[in-house]
Design a protein that fits this description.
Layout lengths: L7 E10 L2 E7 L5 E6 L3 H11 L3 E5 L4 H12 L16 H11 L7 E2 H7 L6 H9 L12 E2 L12 H10 L8
Parallel strand pairs: 1-4, 5-6
Antiparallel strand pairs: 1-2, 2-3
């Protein structure tokens, strides 16, 4: 009989932001495991189950690093979110996409095609889009900075209005509203 490992203990937090209630899942090492919006909690948990098959959510406090970095982000200082420790466990391809996303500076955008080229898979535009959509840690891994080849707003798990707000907030040359 195979032994079942005990569920991983994860911590659920929420905080108010200018664009809604943010949900944050961290682990015992104070690494961010998931970030999404209250109205998308079920999707966030579904994505998390892909990478952590068994877990137990408990209430817990955010580390000072995460708390202060998110405060700074919403106050207009985007650099501290780069210091938030993240633990994701996607495929090798997803990890490559997510690492490249994390290197897109605030205030800039990249098309799916350009992102595919950056990871050395120029023809994998759709796969890049799928990996982008499976990102469990929005804002910290800034999937909102990916736009259409023609500069158009494209899908965002948190909704296009939220994506527009984030890009406007980061001065990415996107007009609000």
């Amino acid at each position: 009989m195979p032994k079942h490992s005990p569920p991983e203990i994860l911590f659920r937090n929420q905080r108010e932001t200018p664009i809604g209630t943010m949900l944050i899942i961290t682990d015992k090492q104070q690494r961010m495991r998931a970030l999404d919006w209250l109205e998308y909690e079920e999707r966030m948990l579904r994505l998390l189950r892909r990478y952590v098959p068994t877990f137990e959510l408990q209430k817990g406090a955010l580390s000072a690093v995460i708390h202060e970095a998110l405060d700074a982000y919403f106050a207009g200082d985007f650099t501290p979110v780069n210091n938030i420790p993240v633990h994701t466990t996607g495929t090798v391809f997803q990890q490559a996409v997510w690492q490249t996303l994390r290197n897109i500076p605030a205030g800039t955008t990249l098309s799916y095609g350009a992102l595919a080229k950056k990871i050395g898979r120029a023809k994998a535009v759709r796969a890049v889009g799928t990996a982008n959509g499976a990102n469990p840690v929005g804002i910290i891994i800034p999937c909102h900075r990916v736009i259409g080849m023609d500069g158009s707003m494209t899908g965002y798990g948190g909704g296009l209005e939220r994506k527009r707000w984030l890009l406007t907030h980061e001065n990415a040359g996107i007009k609000a509203g």
